[in-house]
Amino acid sequence: MKRVIQFGTGSTLAVMLSSTALMAAEELNALVWCDHTDPALLEPFETAHNVRVNVKEYEGTAAALAILDQSRPGDWDVLVIDGVDVGRAVDEGRLAALPADQLPTASFFPEVVMADNNTRDGVTYAVTEKFGYNTIAYNKSKVDVADMNDMSTLWGEKYAGKIAVYDYYLPLLGLVGLEQGINTADLDSNAVEGMRERLYALKDAAKSVSDVVASQTALATGEVDIVIGGGEWLTAVLSAENSDMDWLVPEEGALRWSQSIGVLEDSTNKDLAVEFVKYITSPEGQARLATSSCYWAMPANAEAGAILTDAEKTALRWDEQADYLARTQLYPTPDADLDLAMQDLWTDMLQQ
Questions:
Q1: What is the pLDDT of residue 304?
Q2: Average pLDDT of the chain?
Q3: What's the confidence (pLDDT) of residue 19?
Q4: Which end of the chain, N or C, is less packed with Cβ atoms under 10 Å?
Q5: Quick check: helix, strand or coil at residue 334?
Q6: Residue 233 — pLDDT band, cuts 50, 70, 90?
Q7: In the chain, what are the domains?
Q8: What is the pLDDT of residue 167?
Q9: Contact by Cβ (8 Å): 80, 259
Q10: Measured between alpha carbons, how far is 302 from 110 in angstroms, rounded to an integer?
Q11: How far does the chain reach from its first CA to its final CA, in angstroms?
Q12: Are 91 and 265 in contact (CB under 8 A)?
């Protein structure tokens, strides 16, 4: 499979049509993260089903829900969503029930099945497809790797001005909490407010607070040496060109993200949408998704390991997953009031 290093698609939401499926008899419309826009992922499904998959990329669950609100019922068939937000989508009636007996979850890494997130009252509405870590990414030729094991060193003078902070409040506030000894499950309004000075100090030490594309570019070009909130999804695709691109889970731990895929309740093409979900979670689909040109990360289905190359598994730290899964925590799952408080604090930090 040809690998293409891609730093991103810019801020414009783009619809990407696979050129090999222009004469397809059917169409499937999917609202996705950028890793699903890779033709190497889509084309095998399009060919097998004589279908054109139209994908629209978004960032952030709020953006996806806004797109759905602005669309007509039936415009979208498939939704990729942050695993911790599946419940929200279910509560809003967005997702259709999936045939759980047709999904290969028995071969998933047990920790990422996440039944509490993906099911409700015994009904499966989504399935985990990919996971990874918001942690510390770095250029190992420019830093003392031992320092990266202790997050507190990132607030010191040694790396001031050589740090990029990933601009996403949930995992970053989670990481700041871990640095202060607070588990993500214990974050409340008092704990969040107590992070204010520490968060401001982190920004003062950083060169930039930036999105995926800008953070990845800054690390690749040497503008920064460290990305707080980065991980294998940021460095794995870069390491093929520069073996100094690396990441680790520090002693304090890190945040584990996961993304889920489901079928939209308003879809008029549910059978084909379910087939797409089954393809994405199959070993073959998982191997292609794990090494998508936009970003790499761990497949939920462990059987993808038989398809991935040794070099790909090394980049993904395949053999270290048991340790990482044990030492990382899920994203915070704030209620509406706490979420607003977290967003307000993040905005205040950006503006100060």
A1: 98
A2: 91
A3: 40
A4: C
A5: coil
A6: confident
A7: 2-129+258-316 (3.40.190.10), 132-256+329-350 (3.40.190.10)
A8: 94
A9: yes
A10: 9
A11: 46
A12: no
Instruction: Assess whether pLDDT exceeds 60 at residue 1.
Output: no
Q: How far apart are CA 225 and CA 61, in angstroms?
A: 29
Burial of 59 (0-12, 13-18, 19+ CB in 10 A): middle
Lowest mean pLDDT among 43-57, 86-100, 333-347: 333-347
pLDDT tens for each residue of 156-177: 999 999 999 999 999 999 999 9
The H-assigned helical ranges of the chain are 39-49, 61-70, 86-91, 115-118, 145-148, 169-179, 189-193, 196-205, 212-221, 232-239, 270-280, 283-290, 310-316, 321-327, 336-351
Q: Coil, helix or strand for 52?
A: strand
Eight-class DSSP state of 301 = B
> Which residue has 């990305």 as its token pair?
227
Q: What is the sign, positive or negative, of the torsion defined by CA atoms of 243, 82, 10, 34?
A: positive
Per the listing, tokens 């996705």 go with 32
Number of neighbours of residue 189 by Cβ within 10 angstroms = 14
Nearest by Cα to 320 from 237, 230, 231 = 231
Please, what is the Cα angle at 257 between 341 and 168, to 5 degrees? 40
Q: Can you read off the two tokens belonging to residue 137?
A: 């990414």
Cα separation, 214 vs 167, in Å, equals: 10
In this prediction, residues 203-207 reach a mean pLDDT of 96
Q: Sort 122 into a burial class: Cβ within 10 Å, 0-12 / 13-18 / 19+.
A: exposed
Is the pLDDT at 325 greater than 70, yes or no? yes
Average pLDDT over residues 120-134: 97
